[in-house]
Amino acid sequence: MSGTTAPAHRSVLPDEDATRALGRALAALLRAGDLVVLTGGLGAGKTTLTQGIGAGLHVRGPVLSPTFTIARVQPPLPREDGSTGPALVHVDAYRLGSLEEVDALDLEAGLDESVTVVEWGAGWVEPLASDRLEVELVRPRGAESGPLDPQDAAAGARVALVRGVGERWAGVVLPGEPVAG
Prior knowledge:
Pfam families: TsaE (PF02367). This protein is α/β, with parallel strands linked by helices.
């Protein structure tokens, strides 16, 4: 990691609505040129969080998992005041097997004009930007074996750890409770 790393902030996400709400809160902080790197196991809520980011950025939807298409560009819609925000570039790096495949996506080309969210991006996309937002989604204990039923409150809540890396995030108040250490 280069530059400054802000302390992580922790949010408990009891359901999909809370996960989308965190995404909307993050979208309020995001601007063109920002890179968001999402990590977490299968079914941890990466796409659900990205749906919230898309809603907060007011992009044309629906925001769907780009697992098989690898990347989707969601253009911005005009806001009530007539302005538009950045487009959302939503990438799923799960099926990528090499840095050459990441380079072939040419994510740098639109990075300055868009918010780029990369699921499964840790270890692959950090060279794209020294400033980035890292979000780790942790599933409840015992849920690693398969998808959770979002309606099953007894399954437990997911936890999101949000960390800003680089000068861009210095002094930015992230959603959630600060994590000591």
